[in-house]
């Protein structure tokens, strides 16, 4: 990815005319994009990598697989949250890892960790670098040196078991590459978070990612069958069967451990045959509460859609769910999208059952068009976010989840917290929301916030995020449904898992990472 | 439950005539049942409970809620495995907890744990007492005194949220009571392990129980949303949403912790509306491999039955899946049972899809009869096991799980290990097997073993179990799919989770149970 924005250079987008009009009207900005800096002009924090350490690490990964080149350091300087990008735009020297190390396999990862543990070097495991919560910040902790451990060379499909419908990937395989490798065997993974194009299998597992087809294929943590983890003090292989009663499920300690407890090097996941059929249907609901109740009836009845999502009135009105039409003619009500995948008979039965439930709950069928539009544009939003930033407009997202009975309260309180904090700072704020992950007992809420960038944009967003996080905690919802803890949510983790929970995580970390080298900036407060 | 066998006295059964004939023919025993001992005649290990300790515990739970009566001690002397019952039949003094303590609520549980931690008293959390792996043995560890912490007074439905379809139970609520309490709200839990009639909500969670309707409603660990856990050093509440990315999922440390890390006092579970319709259909397959492939196609396609099981040729031949006909006219092939629950439309669509898949895979539909028979008799097997024991015949079960591609190898090797070990000791052995829990990536195998009781029956079964467990480990399957680790599977846990896994569990235990009072006989080697 480029150093100062999302994705690849060719993905950079300009702002459509209707959006520029909106920006002028609401925020008083022109929509003209500021120029970006050349990465060669960026000053970096001075390098701290003694020659013997460079030699020791090179001995493990081989010449050519450790670099201290400024460009590589800069591209490993953190993730892709708006805060990250604002920091990247700062003119003072950029923080960055002192070296980027590219191990070839599990054994090299384990050797790097043992070496860094013995020699006091902090290690930030690095997959696709798509964190939006500060999960790959180059934090040194109490050490002088920090390296990024880039896993891109662990890029193989190690095994595909067509009978059991499982596949084992190296941690560095990206979303598109995983689908490509599986397709050669007639299988698919079906994990499509917005980071899909760049994020990696290891990163999906380490952050408990959830994809847009979670209704059908589950969250990534549901897909995980087996993991191989390197820690500074040994390797562990976990997961011998689809399910087990052999004590606590320690996979669930490493899944979601965000590189702070170990490095996931191989992940075996549940896959499925490439679907025979995909059916798209969009629906309109008069309001969000009606739409949410409709989604609830579908998931609680077990109608089993593959994708099930609902935009609120604000998001629907701005057409944010349909990339091609964003900012176009306003749309009333709330747009819902469903897709169904599988055999033809399976899709026919499921979509008929769901349609009946959605109609009974007050939905109006819109046909496949808006659902296909949504699918077509679903990975484009981060590029739009970057263009808004270039135009002086802050656009950031945050997400949470709770039970169905608390969903309305959660939406109201988070919306109010964001709106009030930003307004009080002196900018109008647009707050939009959708449900994109549903469960029989509850759902996620995903908020998109647009406001004018003020003079101190980092402090501006921190205040809004603090208020939103506090509102989430007050309702008793989770501080993050699929973005992970990283640096940005650490302060709320004690509220989420309690003092005993924090003590447990610290005890586990002390045991397997006694030097504390693993990702010091993330997860644990 | 009675002290020396499964269940209630009125459940005690005699052996049907066809079985007595079979026993005479195969094992040379008459099928006459030996008399059982009166519990008043049983000698117990001397009591070790200093007066100040009795007073300290009574201060917490209140007078009348601590007992040292011999009958109560005996009924808390362990679980209900065949090994347990063989030990109970031994004439030497029975080991038993020194006292049974009945706390009223979470706070009393927490206070008992803190007290016992401060005063060096081992604590065995006790739910239904149905463990078949030695999970509630009165083991003292390095302490003089051990108490059973019986949770039966935590017997309330604390909350039912009809919108989110969740219910919060006290840990001591039994299976039938949970269904009864939920039915008053129009909901059901749908968790039916063979221990259903006696086991408790807390026990289901602490052991990762899986019920016969797991295909439809999931394992108990899938159902768990929120848990409240008392530890000797604090309380922890975990689970704020249906799903979360807030770091490692610590619920999964306590679910399956078998009382060794904490005491689950309140459990919030996913529930569902009482089904409109239940459809039963039985199927016959020419052989186990064909049947297993058929089940696989159903679960991998997502046809979503509620119950899905398959008996092998031996189990089908003995009619073991149909309690009323056990030992009757032999039946050829392999019997499969399906049930579908839900709305009428849902059941119709699902059962049609499944029927098509099962037929295409070589199944012959037998109608609802055998499926209803199976359901009717499904909790009776343990009583039959006890009658066999009374007649001098060992009948024990063990279970495991693996991926679909390894299922056949696993079945062959475990069957051989059991048969060869028992035959070598001088008894014929009948080994039967069924699949009762299916997943897209694999399935469980449940073995029932019948052999003549030899002179040293405990050593006899231990040798067979050792061989079976080693065979399971060799194949790379899990040592237990739903019976938990307890005492009986501890030796295989390091093979299952590795040395790093064991270190992690020990580190967690040191942190939250520093005195090591919690269930010293279980889980950790």
What would you say about this model in short?
The structure is a homodimer of 525-residue chains. Chain A is an alpha+beta fold.
3D structure, described in words:
- Chain A is α+β, with helices and mostly antiparallel strands.
- Helix content of chain A is 36%, strand content 21%.
- The first copy, chain A, is built from 18 helices and 19 strands.
- In chain A, strands 12, 13, 14, 15, 16, 17, 18 and 19 form an eight-stranded antiparallel β-sheet that branches. In chain A, strands 5-6-10-8-9 form a five-stranded antiparallel β-sheet. In chain A, strands 1-2-4-3 form a four-stranded mixed β-sheet.
- Chain A is globular.
- The first copy, chain A, starts with 16 loop residues before the first helix and ends in a 13-residue tail after the last helix.
- Chains A and B meet through strand 8, strand 9, helix 10, strand 11 and helix 11 of A and strand 8, strand 9, helix 10, strand 11 and helix 11 of B.
Radius of gyration of CA atoms of chain A, rounded to a whole number = 23 Å
Specify which chain pair forms the largest interface. Answer: A-B, 101 and 101 residues
- β-strand amount of chain A: 15-25%
Counted by DSSP, the helix tally of chain A is 18
Oligomeric description of these chains: homodimer
Measure the end-to-end span of chain A: 29 Å
What's the number of extended β-strand segments of chain A?
A: 19
What structural category characterises the helix and strand content of chain A? alpha+beta
Q: Helix proportion of residues of chain A, in percent? A: 25-40%
Rounded average pLDDT of chain A: 95
Low-confidence parts of chain A: none
Report the biggest beta sheet of chain A as strand number plus sense, adding barrel if it closes: 8 strands, antiparallel
The geometry of chain A reads as globular
């Amino acid at each position: 990815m480029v150093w100062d924005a999302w994705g690849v250079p060719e993905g950079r987008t300009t702002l459509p005319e209707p959006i520029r009009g909106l920006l002028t009207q609401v925020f008083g900005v022109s929509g003209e994009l500021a120029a970006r800096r050349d990465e060669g002009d960026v000053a970096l924090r001075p390098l701290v990598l003694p020659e013997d350490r460079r030699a020791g690490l090179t001995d493990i990964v081989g010449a050519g697989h450790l670099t201290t080149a400024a460009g590589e350091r800069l591209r490993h300087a953190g993730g892709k949250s708006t805060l990250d990008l604002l920091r990247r735009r700062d003119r003072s020297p950029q923080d960055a890892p002192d070296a980027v190390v590219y191990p070839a396999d599990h054994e090299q990862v384990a050797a790097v960790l043992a070496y860094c543990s013995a020699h006091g070097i902090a290690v930030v495991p690095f997959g696709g670098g798509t964190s939006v919560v500060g999960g790959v910040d180059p934090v040194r902790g109490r050490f002088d040196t920090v390296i990024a451990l880039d896993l891109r060379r662990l890029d193989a499909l190690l095994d595909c078991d067509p009978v059991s419908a499982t596949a084992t990937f190296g941690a560095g395989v990206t979303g598109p590459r995983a689908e490509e490798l599986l397709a050669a065997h007639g299988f698919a993974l079906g994990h499509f978070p917005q980071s899909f194009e760049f994020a990696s299998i290891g990163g999906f597992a380490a952050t408990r990612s959830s994809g847009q087809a979670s209704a059908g294929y589950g969250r990534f943590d549901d897909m995980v069958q087996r993991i191989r983890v390197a820690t500074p003090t040994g390797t562990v292989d976990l997961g011998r069967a689809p399910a087990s009663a052999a004590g606590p499920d320690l996979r669930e300690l490493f899944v979601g451990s965000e590189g702070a407890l170990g490095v996931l090097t191989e992940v075996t996941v549940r896959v499925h045959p490439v679907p025979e059929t995909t059916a798209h249907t969009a629906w309109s609901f008069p309001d969000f509460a009606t739409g949410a109740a409709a989604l609830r009836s579908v998931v609680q009845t077990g109608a089993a859609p593959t994708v099930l999502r609902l935009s609120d009135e604000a998001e629907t009105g701005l057409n944010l769910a349909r990339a091609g039409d964003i900012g176009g003619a306003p749309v009333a009500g709330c747009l819902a999208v469903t897709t169904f995948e599988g055999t033809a008979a399976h899709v026919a039965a499921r979509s008929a059952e769901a349609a009946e439930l959605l109609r009974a709950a007050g939905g109006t069928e819109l046909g496949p068009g808006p659902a296909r539009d949504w699918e077509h544009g679903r990975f484009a939003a981060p590029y739009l976010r970057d263009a808004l930033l270039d135009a002086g407009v802050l656009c950031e997202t945050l997400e949470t989840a709770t039970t169905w009975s608390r969903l309305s309260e959660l939406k109201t309180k988070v919306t109010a917290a964001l709106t009030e904090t930003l307004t009080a700072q002196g900018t109008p704020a647009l707050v939009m929301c959708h449900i994109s992950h549903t469960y029989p007992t509850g759902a996620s809420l995903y908020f998109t916030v647009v406001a004018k960038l003020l003079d101190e944009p980092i402090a501006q967003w921190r205040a809004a995020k603090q208020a939103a996080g506090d509102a989430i905690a007050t309702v008793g919802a989770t501080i993050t449904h699929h973005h992970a803890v990283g640096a940005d949510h650490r302060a709320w983790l004690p509220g989420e898992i309690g003092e005993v929970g924090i003590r447990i995580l610290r005890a586990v970390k002390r045991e397997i990472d006694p030097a504390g080298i693993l990702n010091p900036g993330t997860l644990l407060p």
